[in-house]
């Protein structure tokens, strides 16, 4: 009897051919589609894919960001990006390179150095890469090349962007300058951004340009390009623009800055103006200055030598980098330390016979015959040295040093400028640590009148004066806003000093400028609403021997320039409602009352009147001289046409 299969097995047996057909059909369709695609790629598009596979690759190339601009507080441009015209040559398109360069030199001026450098770059570069023949050429030169293009194969005029400083010398020490990235620059950066390796890419070298480099630089964009095996760009696939650098607005007033530079002309000097309300630096001038545009593409050897060999050191920023013995401008600090320590009161007196004997040594007053009996007010008004020798020995150097720091001396202020110095407010521990020696009472006597180890920059002296004027810890602010965002104010909190003691010092400073026997009376401000308080200072740069003192100290005018005393003056105005504080240092200028005080008074008036002040603000005896001076300075401040700078590296 024939055995039957189970029903379930029969059903499974019947379904098997259908599944196989479906699976086979799918496999056949997939294989057919793959074969068709392979045929399309290998036959129909064989040439295109062969080019991509064998010769081409995709590169990502950076797009340099637009550098941020720099403005003064009123929106005047200080640092900008300007078109830079250049002439480039592609060697493979030029044919006879030397012949083409010869023709080009008949149209535009080419120096031997420019030609030699271009030839060297061509020899080590791919033949299709453009090489710069002449940089920063004029529009007229570009036009000549364009008109004669058929006779100049491979030569093309191009336009790029370069940094330009339209205020020239006025802001050189503030803004600094940019230049091409060097190997040294790269070595100083732990992880250099790829954009820094773009040929001729510019970064800040000194000054604000360097200190605010990250903000000003921005972020690079990128583009994808298709290049062949030799590096030639075949086409651009896509592009993503970068982020432009931040625009900076400074606290500096360009017109006041220009006036200060003009007023300091002919001197090796520095001047700083600080807004007492906000800490804004309204002017910060170092003289002589230099044209920062010379450095953008490389300065010539002759120009650089002229700057470095100048005895007045135009490259040095004397406002923050230069430190000087503050001389008698430091006496307010010694007075405040003595008052706060309870060593003296405003009515306590000291007798000045012209010297004070400390141990076996005599410390002399600047007035050989002495000042007689003086109190705090008279000591500042007449700048008696013996008074401060005496009170300093009773106060102690540590108290004086601490007071100096409260008023901003011996402190490195945080502003984005190069080589900002901390100065020095020494104490006993400092001398032991640095010199390995014990502090002497003679050191205290010297420090009390701003001599010896004591050092301060013009910026620090301006900060000190602003703090005396306001009783607040005013801090300097150079950058007012970044991309329109206001930066923190430098107004500061109240100082930890007795306001009554501070008022004693302020009144004495007022008498310096407004009392007939004050050392700065000749440089006073007549206008009642703008009365000025100040203090003169003279710091020695040489030792006066006992023999010279006995025979009579040689006048500064009779000494070589480099051996003359430094002249200093600090001031604030108006006295009743301080608006500005000014500090001026004239290197080897002699007496502060003669060399520094008139400059500070003129700059102060320019700031207070926001322009040329009326002659009535000056003492009557000075008005004719001031009138002529104003005419001369106005002429010096007019914009002058400057020739375009050539690449002279």
Automatic annotation (TrEMBL):
Pfam families in UniProt: PBP_dimer (PF03717), Transpeptidase (PF00905)
GO biological process, one term: proteolysis
Name recorded for this polypeptide: Peptidoglycan glycosyltransferase
GO cellular component: plasma membrane
Membrane-spanning parts: none
Domain Penicillin-binding protein dimerisation: 63-237
Primary localization: membrane
Keyword line: Carboxypeptidase, Cell inner membrane, Cell membrane, Cell shape, Cell wall biogenesis/degradation, Hydrolase, Membrane, Peptidoglycan synthesis, Protease, Transferase, Transmembrane, Transmembrane helix
Recorded topology in the membrane: Single-pass membrane protein
Organism: Ruegeria faecimaris
Domain named Penicillin-binding protein transpeptidase: residues: 270-604
Domain of life: Bacteria
SUPFAM superfamilies (UniProt xref): beta-lactamase/transpeptidase-like, Penicillin binding protein dimerisation domain
């Amino acid at each position: 009897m024939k055995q039957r299969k189970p029903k379930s097995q029969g059903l499974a047996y019947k379904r098997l051919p259908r599944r196989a057909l479906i699976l086979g059909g799918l496999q056949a369709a997939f294989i057919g589609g793959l074969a068709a695609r392979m045929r399309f790629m290998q036959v129909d598009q064989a040439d295109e894919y062969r080019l991509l596979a064998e010769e081409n690759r995709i590169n990502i190339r950076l797009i340099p960001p637009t550098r941020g601009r720099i403005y003064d507080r009123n929106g005047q441009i200080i640092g900008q990006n300007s078109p830079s015209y250049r002439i480039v040559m592609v060697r493979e398109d030029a044919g006879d390179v030397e012949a083409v360069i010869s023709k080009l030199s008949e149209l535009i001026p080419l120096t031997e150095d420019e030609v030699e450098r271009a030839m060297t770059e061509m020899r080590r570069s791919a033949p299709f890469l453009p090489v710069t023949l002449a940089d920063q050429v004029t529009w007229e030169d570009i036009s000549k090349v364009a008109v004669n293009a058929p006779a100049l194969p491979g030569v093309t005029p191009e336009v790029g962007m370069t940094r330009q400083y339209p205020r020239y010398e006025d802001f050189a020490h503030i803004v600094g300058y940019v230049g091409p990235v060097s190997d040294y620059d790269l070595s100083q950066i732990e992880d250099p951004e790829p954009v820094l390796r773009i040929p001729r890419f510019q970064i800040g070298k000194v000054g604000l340009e360097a200190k605010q480099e990250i903000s000003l630089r921005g972020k690079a964009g990128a583009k994808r390009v298709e290049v062949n095996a030799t590096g030639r760009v075949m086409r651009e696939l896509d592009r993503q623009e970068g982020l432009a650098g931040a625009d900076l607005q400074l606290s500096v007033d360009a017109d006041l800055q220009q006036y200060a530079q003009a007023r300091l002309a002919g001197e090796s000097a520095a001047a700083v103006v600080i807004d007492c309300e906000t800490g804004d630096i309204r002017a910060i001038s170092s003289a002589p200055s230099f044209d920062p545009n010379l450095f953008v593409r490389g300065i010539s050897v002759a120009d650089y030598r002229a700057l470095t060999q100048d005895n007045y050191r135009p490259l040095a920023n004397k406002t923050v980098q230069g430190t000087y013995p503050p001389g008698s401008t430091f006496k307010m600090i010694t007075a405040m330390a003595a008052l706060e320590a309870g060593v003296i009161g405003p009515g306590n007196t000291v007798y000045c016979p012209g010297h004070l004997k400390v141990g076996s040594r005599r410390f002399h007053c600047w007035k050989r015959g002495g000042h007689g009996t003086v109190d705090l007010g008279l000591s500042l008004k007449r700048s008696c040295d013996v008074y401060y020798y005496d009170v300093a020995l009773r106060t102690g150097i540590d108290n004086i040093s601490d007071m100096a720091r409260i008023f901003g001396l011996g402190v490195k202020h945080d502003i984005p400028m190069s080589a900002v110095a901390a100065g020095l407010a020494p104490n006993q521990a400092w001398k032991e640590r640095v010199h390995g020696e014990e502090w002497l009472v003679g050191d205290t006597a010297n420090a009390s009148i701003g001599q010896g180890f004591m050092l301060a920059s013009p910026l620090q002296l301006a900060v000190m004066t602003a703090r005396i004027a306001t009783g607040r810890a005013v801090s300097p602010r150079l950058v007012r806003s970044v991309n329109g965002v206001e930066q923190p104010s430098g107004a500061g909190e109240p100082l930890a000093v007795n306001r009554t003691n501070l008022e004693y010092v302020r009144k004495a400073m007022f008498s310096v400028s407004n009392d007939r026997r004050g050392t700065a009376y000749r440089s006073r401000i007549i206008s009642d609403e703008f009365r000025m308080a100040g203090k003169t200072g003279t710091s020695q740069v040489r030792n006066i021997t006992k023999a010279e003192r006995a025979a009579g100290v040689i006048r500064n005018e009779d000494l070589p320039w480099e051996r003359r005393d430094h002249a200093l003056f600090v001031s604030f105005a108006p006295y009743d409602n301080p608006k500005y504080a000014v500090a001026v240092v004239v290197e080897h200028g002699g007496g502060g009352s003669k060399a520094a005080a008139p400059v500070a008074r003129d700059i102060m008036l320019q700031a207070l009147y926001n322009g040329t002040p009326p002659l009535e603000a000056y003492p009557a005896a000075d008005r004719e001289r001031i009138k002529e001076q104003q005419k001369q300075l106005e002429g010096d401040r007019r914009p002058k046409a400057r020739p375009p700078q050539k690449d002279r590296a």
